[in-house]
């Protein structure tokens, strides 16, 4: 893996770097650099002061999308974040799979060893990023001090996408991919096709069917921040079934792992965009060992 960093006060890193930059926001230094692995280039950013924290975006979300939450977290944490392959300022990839995205997260953690963090970080994952966080923590327990899972990594009792739903979901994600074309060349771009997004969601359903085994391997504190209406608050269509399945998955997990702290926000799956202050406050508070609404 080839890396490049550019940080104030690290002359040796600047010599080693193939590129990078440092920006100032008030009294906080923002460092931007890239890592290269598995044929992709992944941009990383670091800024803030306090306890180390790594934020992993989800499918179809980028660092730019999560800007408000990132800025709020930087008030109390030394935040490292990045874009998954095919997202934001990352390069396109030849394959998009759960294992490939998990490799992106592993590459970020490998780079953390060169960033002089004082301790293992809090790992925060949103949506797919939450699933990646659980898998990473189960495989590398010493690398993570605490997990915060935002509307993901849910051991739902039933898959979301059934054979009967495939056509409707394919059309929805093809439409989403078309809308994404207007963001090409920006920090908010997503390069995946509608078919690739569909295939990933089918794969995520399969991953979540076995994720309870992953939780059993994790000893660090875990907090979940979940939406009450992940599919929206409509009383028609798929939404009621999806929302019921979502809550049932969390209840299933907490029955088996009562140590997990769970907070519910009156929101849909876009809660990282609509409820960033509440999410930042919950993370700041830390695990509380109880369920709140």
Task: Give a topology summary.
Blueprint: E1 2-4, H1 11-16, E2 21-25, E3 28-37, E4 40-48, E5 51-56, H2 67-73, E6 77-82, H3 98-112, E7 122-126, H4 128-139, E8 146-150, H5 166-180, H6 194-209, H7 211-215, E9 222-227, H8 239-256, E10 261-265, H9 271-274, H10 276-285, E11 291-292
Helix pairs in contact: 2-10, 3-4, 5-6
Structural notes for this entry:
The protein is of the alpha/beta class and 293 residues long. The protein has a single domain, classed as Alpha/Beta hydrolase fold, catalytic domain (Rossmann fold). The protein contains ten helices and eleven strands. Strands 1, 2, 3, 4, 5, 6, 7, 8, 9, 10 and 11 form an eleven-stranded mixed sheet that branches. A hairpin with a 2-residue loop joins strand 3 (28-37) and strand 4. The termini are far apart.
Number of helical segments with 4 or more residues: 10
Helix content bin: 25-40%
Question: Could you give the order of the helices and strands?
Answer: EHEEEEHEHEHEHHHEHEHHE
CATH class: Alpha Beta
CATH T-level fold name? Rossmann fold
Number of strands: 11
Overall geometry comes to globular
> Which stretches are poorly predicted, pLDDT < 50 over at least 5 residues?
1-19, 289-293
Tell me the Rg in angstroms: 18 Å
CATH superfamily: Alpha/Beta hydrolase fold, catalytic domain
Beginning-to-end CA distance, first to last residue: 44 Å
Strand content: 15-25%
């Amino acid at each position: 893996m080839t890396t490049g960093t550019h940080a104030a006060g690290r002359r040796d890193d600047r010599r080693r770097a193939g590129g990078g930059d440092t920006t100032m926001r008030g009294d906080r230094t923002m460092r931007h650099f890239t890592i290269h692995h598995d044929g992709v280039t992944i941009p990383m950013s670091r800024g803030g002061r306090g306890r180390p924290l790594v934020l992993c975006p989800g499918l179809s979300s980028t660092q730019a999308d999560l800007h408000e939450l990132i800025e709020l977290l930087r008030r109390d944490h030394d935040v490292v974040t990045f874009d998954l392959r095919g997202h934001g300022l990352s390069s396109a990839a030849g394959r998009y799979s759960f294992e490939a995205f998990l490799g992106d997260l592993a590459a970020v953690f490998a780079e953390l060893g060169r960033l002089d963090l004082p301790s293992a970080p809090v790992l925060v994952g949103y949506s797919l990023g939450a699933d990646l966080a659980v898998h990473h923590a189960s495989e590398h327990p010493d690398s993570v001090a605490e997990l915060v899972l935002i509307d993901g990594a849910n051991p739902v009792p039933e898959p979301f996408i059934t054979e009967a739903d495939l056509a409707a979901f394919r059309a929805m994600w093809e439409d989403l991919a078309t809308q994404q074309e207007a963001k090409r060349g920006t920090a908010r771009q997503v390069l995946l096709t509608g078919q690739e997004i569909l295939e990933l969601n089918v794969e995520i359903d399969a991953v979540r069917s076995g994720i309870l085994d992953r939780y059993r391997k994790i000893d660090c504190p875990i907090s979940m921040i979940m939406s009450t209406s992940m599919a929206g608050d409509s009383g028609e269509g798929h939404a009621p079934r999806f929302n019921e399945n979502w809550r049932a998955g969390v209840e299933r997990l907490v029955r088996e792992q009562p140590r997990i702290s769970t907070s519910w926000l009156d929101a849909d799956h876009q809660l990282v965009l609509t409820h960033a202050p509440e999410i930042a406050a919950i993370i700041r508070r830390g695990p509380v060992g109880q369920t709140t609404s």
